[in-house]
Amino acid sequence: MPQRCTWAPLDDPVYLAYHDVEWGVPVHDETRLFEMLTLEGAQAGLSWRTILLKREGYRSAFSGFDPTAVARFSSRRVEQVLQDPRIVRNRLKVESTVANARAIVALWRAGSSLDELLWSFVDGSPIRNRWRALDQLPAETAESRAMSKELKRLDFRFVGPTVCYSLMQACGLVNDHLVSCFRYREVQM
Question: Is 2 part of a structural domain of the chain?
Answer without folding.
Answer: no
